[in-house]
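Is adenosine monophosphate placement plausible here? Inputs below.
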Amino acid sequence: MFNLILFGPPGSGKGTQSEKLIDKYGLMHLSTGNLLREEIVNQTKLGLEAKRFMDNGQLVPDSVVIGMIRSAIEHNPASKGFLFDGFPRTVAQAEALDELLAEKQAEINAFLALEVSREELIGRLLNRGKTSGRSDDVNEDIISARIQEYENKTAPVAGYYEQFDKGVRVKGEGDIDQIFDSLCREIDAKMLV
Ligand code: AMP
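Reply from A.M.:
I modeled the complex. Tokens:
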């Protein structure tokens, strides 16, 4: 199994690059944001609970997202590996993920962090809001709250993986294909380890 985390603030291009990476490497895409939006569309109890946080740009409680990821991993035992996008977003989620993978005799093989400036993020998210249909991309206050949550609770996750020498930072600004090539170079190097 090869398990990869694509990390970065909201608007750093995780979704776009994930689509290209799963095609190339045959990994299963697990985006907690997408899974939560599906729960909302299906009007489940979990979706209704999560929506209150998402509408305010706040993180959904750890127990909710960890449960979703546990179930996704358990329902896909034959997967070659997973690409985690938007998860883990707290150190507690990262620790829980390590435990879930250890139960399958697996681990995180690469942690790639996309780096994008704050001004560029806000511009990209507002632009995406014109077409994404996501209410949390339209309002600048909610966008700022999401970036604040990232800085307070999510950025420390990079330090968690760096302590195990798994973290690599990749410039997330510029041409999409060039960023993709940089990510692939790092992944290929980790696959040889
Ligand atoms: P995303 O699509 O990754 O930008 O996520 C959209 C929203 O879903 C976030 O602003 C959070 O409210 C929630 N969310 C997604 N993933 C997580 C996670 N791993 N932990 C907590 N909240 C999450």
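Short version: The beta strands are 4-7, 28-31, 82-85, 110-115, 167-171.
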